[in-house]
Amino acid sequence: MARARKISAESIGIDSHIDTIQRVLIGGADLSRRLPYGHVDFPRLHEGGMKAPFFALWCPVYYKGAEAVRRTLQLRDAMQTCSMLTRTRSNSPHRPPISSGS
Description:
- By secondary structure, the chain is of the alpha+beta class.
- It has helices at residues 2-10, 21-27, 42-47, 65-88; strands at residues 13-18, 50-55.
- It is built from 4 helices and 2 strands, in the order H-E-H-H-E-H.
- 14% of the residues are buried.
């Protein structure tokens, strides 16, 4: 296990498509805390050594035109709120950086 931890510490873990933000927007999930369900929250990402998580702002195809744009912006806002909650908690070591690249 020590060897695996060493390799992980020296590597860059990348997950380029995390759909979890839908749970934040729809169900109010708080990713800044360890959740009793799902695969992704900030504590798990931190514990697993994930250094480059990319949260997908996926919009279902039944949203069209301006509604699709509105939904995507809602997802972006949910991600930013989630990150702000994590950053403002003084006891949280999980501080995810937010990139707004398109």
